[in-house]
Write a structure and sequence with these properties.
By secondary structure, the protein is mainly α. It has 2 helices and no strands. It starts with 8 loop residues before the first helix and ends with a helix.
Length: 163
């Protein structure tokens, strides 16, 4: 094998050095700048995207804060409306209850007055009927016709005793 022959070491080292220098020059002048540009462009795009993402994140956080503020404001307004409506409905119900109570009290008084009138009328008729019954019973039993005024007075006395 000629690679292991010491007589060829010098030429092999020379060509190794020449090849290394040529490759180094080619890579440093042609390939490395292009690779560097690509890497710089890539880094610039990444940085731009990160900046855009940070700006969008800030905008999103501001929008979320605005949304939450509007939501809290809406909730507070809804609670106020509910409270106001509840109070108005309670006052309205209280007023209706009061009016109904007054109307029922008036109806109860009118009913009691009608009942008392009917009771008085019935008692008046009872007195007349009782006087007629007492007069006809005494006439049949004793055969004596009594005076209407005396019979009415006796019935009134008897009814007063029962009370």
């Amino acid at each position: 094998m000629p690679q292991f022959d010491p007589t060829f070491f010098t030429t092999q080292l020379f060509w190794l050095y020449v090849t290394f220098v040529v490759l180094y020059v080619l890579l440093s002048t042609i390939a490395m700048p292009k690779i560097g540009e690509v890497l710089e462009e890539r880094q610039r795009k990444i940085d731009d995207n990160l900046d855009k993402a940070a700006a969008l994140k800030t905008d999103a956080e501001a929008a979320i804060a605005l949304y939450e503020k509007a939501l809290a404001s809406s909730r507070a307004e809804a609670q106020q409306i509910l409270r106001t409506s509840g109070e108005a409905l309670a006052k309205q119900a209280e007023q209706r209850q009061k009016e109904l109570g007054e109307r029922l009290a008036a109806q109860i008084k009118a009913g009691e007055a009608r009942i008392m009138a009917a009771k008085d009328q019935a008692l008046a008729h009872v007195r007349e009927v009782a006087a007629d019954v007492a007069k006809s019973a005494s006439t049949r039993l004793t055969g004596v016709v009594l005076d209407d005024a005396k019979v009415s007075a006796a019935v009134a006395v008897a009814l007063e005793e029962r009370r």
